[in-house]
Amino acid sequence: MDVDRIFVWAGNFYHAHPYWAIGIVVGLVIIAFLRPKQVFKSLLILILVAAAAYVLYLIGKAVLAGIAGKHQMINK
What we know:
Layout: H1 3-16, H2 18-34, H3 36-75
């Protein structure tokens, strides 16, 4: 779950489909100008959900590493 992968994916999407990417960005900008309060609320909720998912991912990764270490120590 690297941020670099997201930027690489976005760059690849832009290079593969430039007209779609420009259309999506223009559409988001128009929506942001028409309803800025709703867009900022949605963006805040999206950021909070992404942060919570990232924390849960890190906790899960740590738990799995601990379980693997415990299993390894038991078998030695």
